[in-house]
Amino acid sequence: MSKRFPEQHEIDEKAGRLFENSLPTSWVCRPQLKDYGIDREIEIFDAGKSTGIIFKAQIKGTKKLNINIDKSIISISLRTDEVGYLCEELKIPTVLILVDVSSSTIWWHAIQLDSKLRTRLLGARQNGQLDIVIHISANNKLPDSVNSLLAKINESEVFLSARSISIASPNTFLNLMDSVQNFDQLISGLGRSLAVVRIHKLNKLWQEGDISSAQSLIEEIKGDKKSSVEERFEACIIESKLSILEARRSGRQNDYCSIEHKYSIKLRDICKGGPLHLRAYAALSVKAAELHKYARNDLYIFMNSLIHRDPRNIDIIEPLWSMMLPAARRNAAILVVRKYRQCHRLLRFMFSHEQFSVMPLGIELVIGNMLTFLLRLRTERMTDAAKVYELSLRNLAEHAIKISVAFRNWQEVSVIILNSALLCNFRDEISVKFYKAWIDKQVQQIQDVDIKGSVVEQANRQFEKMKEEVSEKDENEDLEISRQIYIGMAESMGIDLSDSGDKIAEIVRIGLRDIDPTRVLKDCRYLYLAIGTGGVPARMLLLPTAGFKTLFCTLHNHGIGSMSLDNACESLKEDYCSKCKNRSPHPSDWKWSHSWQYEQDKIYKNKFRPL
After folding, report:
1. Tell me, what DSSP letter sits at residue 421?
2. Residue 88 sits in which domain range?
3. Does residue 515 form part of some domain?
């Protein structure tokens, strides 16, 4: 009777032979004793000489492959303690090898570099989980990706060295000093490594939303005179994002432009004398900030022109400004186009000088700051021009995605895809359908299964949200949007709303504050607001609340007029309301609305006219 090996033993033996045959012939592959999980030791030779690079491999053979629907990820289950040994205990670069013996196909996975696996490993141990699933990219196929494998072996070696340094005691480090021959080289190398660690930590804190810790690290980097240009560059970028986030939370959307321009100037100063790629990005950030400003002005002047073209406003518009508007609109559009071309030239410069690492971030800036101009073209039904710029911006996005894919920066790829989805015309079903298909195509390039799933989920939410915003609008939100639009229109006409000594700016500020009169009218159901005539600022902006207003008591027929609604309210209270026993406040959650005002006007407009 002949002796037979178990089937899995035969599969593993065949898997080992297939793996060895997939490696370059110059590499030396040594079988290992059947110890705890290591099957081969590989030493890399080049031109007959050892490179000194050695790595270990654990080989898993199978006849039944577990692969996802789009065939981009292969999954394999290992014992939790086995994964812990490979990820955490081995102090030499180690890869997991998966072999499908049915098709003679070999894949590899740099298991020690899989940070998400280490996180899941911690959870598996806490939950007493016996097995854990490992996800392997289908692109990691041998022998095709042998160069990528070699790169990951080098990264694993650096990772393990860094891990050893981070856990070494001061005494251990001190004992090694006698073996150091070049202290300057050691100090320089550790300094560069520290800079990389701080930059990575700062980005991770930002991505995780740990604002307080991110701000603390930014201050630490800014206060460290020895911090590198790269560290200060990254700190400046994250600080600008934090400032914009704070402006968004406090409803100061019109501050975005000034914040962006302020930090672009800071970046330019930081990068003087620094590496070319940082100087090029800093120069682009300045141009992109100017592009944002010009595109925003172009939109607000267009909106102003719409108001002035409305025949219903013929009696209240400012004639001189109406005559000046066409020239102002033409000049505004020229500035946007000119600045966009300048951004394009800087991107071409980056490409021709192979400054690829910063190009995706720069392209992301340009796309974001051109969205306003694209919106204006579509709103004005300049369809052909809108399509030209949309195509140009989408081409930029695809270039940025290709570069980020080449660097395997999947997080950056995801951000570019999601931001580029805003190029879609959400009022056009054909455009929506096209961009959904476009996103699906771009997402296939992401090899990180978690990021890939997250992008799809966020994109679907984004499309649903934009669909709702197009079909439904909350009236109270409209008041804030109107206020932001009027601010933009005022700034586009050269009115500096921050100038406390400018009388026109003061009138406009009063008008902006009085757009929503809830704070005054909620005090009593008998209060009625009548809007009177306005001066030049009110007629230029078509902002009626920047004119004279009268606050009436409809019960006792009292009325007080003023430019400021707050002043009128104070005077009415002092003269009449403080002595009134019929005061009847609205409910605490009541808010003024245009529809409520319309109903009030039908009742009181003819009886209570502005003083």
Report:
1. G
2. 7-165
3. yes
**Is 70 a residue whose pLDDT tops 70?**
yes
Of the residues 379, 401, 423, the one at which a domain ends: 401
CB 278 within 8 A of CB 358: yes
d(C-alpha 281, C-alpha 212), whole Å: 27
**Amino acid identity at 559:** G
Q: Among residues 534, 533, 537, 547, which one has the least CA distance to residue 493?
A: 537
**210 with 154, same domain?**
no
| 508 and 573 together in one domain | yes
Are 395 and 544 part of one and the same domain? no
Check whether the bond before 6 is cis (ω within 30° of 0). no
pTM of the predicted protein model: 0.68
**Mean pLDDT of the 407-432 span:** 91
My answer on whether 337 and 386 are in the same domain is yes
364-390 tens-digit pLDDT: 999 999 999 999 899 888 888 889 999
542 falls within a domain: yes
Give 1-49 as a DSSP string. ------HHHHHHHHHHHHHHHHS-TTSEEEE--S-SS--EEEEEEETTE
pLDDT per position as a tens digit, 31-41: 887 656 789 99
User: How many percent of the chain have pLDDT more than 90?
Assistant: 48
Furthest C-alpha separation in the chain: 116
Residues 407/416, Cβ–Cβ less than 8 Å: no
Own/partner pairs for 453-460, CB < 8 Å, 24+ apart? 454/414, 455/414, 455/417, 455/418, 458/414, 458/418, 459/417, 459/418, 459/421
Span 502-524, pLDDT tens digits: 888 888 899 889 989 999 999 99
Residue 447 lies in a domain: no
Whether the CA torsion 284, 286, 292, 294 is positive or negative: it is negative
What's the number of domains the chain is made of? 3
Q: Contact, 308 vs 319, CB < 8 A?
A: no
Question: Is the pLDDT confidence value at 198 over 90?
Answer: no
**Which CATH number do you get for residue 14?**
3.40.1350
The tens digit of pLDDT for each residue in 484-508 reads: 777 877 877 778 888 888 888 888 8
The pLDDT, as a whole number, for residue 474 is 47
Mean pLDDT of the chain: 86
Residue 470 belongs to some domain of the structure: no
77 and 217 part of one domain? no
Asked whether the predicted pLDDT for residue 143 surpasses 80, the reply is yes
Give the mean pLDDT of 60-84: 88
522 and 564 share a domain?
yes
From the CA atom positions of the chain, what is the Rg in Å? Answer: 33
Q: Are residues 259 and 309 in the same domain?
A: yes
> Phi-psi region for residue 104, left (φ > 0), alpha (ψ -120 to 50) or beta?
left
367 and 488 within one domain: no
Burial class (CB in 10 A: 0-12, 13-18, 19+), 344: middle
Which of 366, 401, 436 is the C-terminal boundary of a domain?
A: 401
